[in-house]
Write a structure and sequence with these properties.
By secondary structure, the protein is of the alpha+beta class. It contains six helices and four strands; from the N terminus they run H-H-H-H-E-H-E-E-H-E. Helix 1 packs antiparallel against helix 2 and helix 2 packs antiparallel against helix 3.
Amino acid sequence: MKDLTQDSIVKNIVSMAAPIAAGMLFQTLYFLVDLYFVAAIGDDAVAGVGAAGTLMFIVMALTQVLGVGAVALIAQAVGRRDQVDANLVFNQSVLLARQISHAYKIPMDPFVLRRDHETAPQTQLAEDERRKNVRGAFTLNPDRSVDGKNILLVDDVYTSGATVNECSRILKRNGSKQVFVVTLARAVS
């Protein structure tokens, strides 16, 4: 993670804004090229693309607001040297869990488990090393109870299953009735 307290503020803002600006530039060019070719079809087609373009720019503006807001929150957490808070703001699994929670009207709590110690990144480890790496890394938050509950564990990418297996083990050991796992993607090697 880049330390945003280093370098000048302008340099940090420009480096974070450059990808956003590039994306907006390409979207605008795409829209203009679309209008150029659609113009040959007729006025109704131009009106349709124009209306769709307006909607596209509204969606782009909203995503940029969310992106800038997330960057601001992450930058603030990094400036405080609060790694946990920075990871929580930008955690794909939490975002996915919130969507599932909202869609299926089930409660969501990202703080049931807590990481007791940092582990090495899993990406370069063999499968047996991954299991050893996460063994004992998680515990049940003492303020939470899973006794008798069915738990839906959400992960963004399932690779070897080491992390979800360790989390499931902790949840079952602390009394959860069943643990189900849902992932957005499965990594294949």
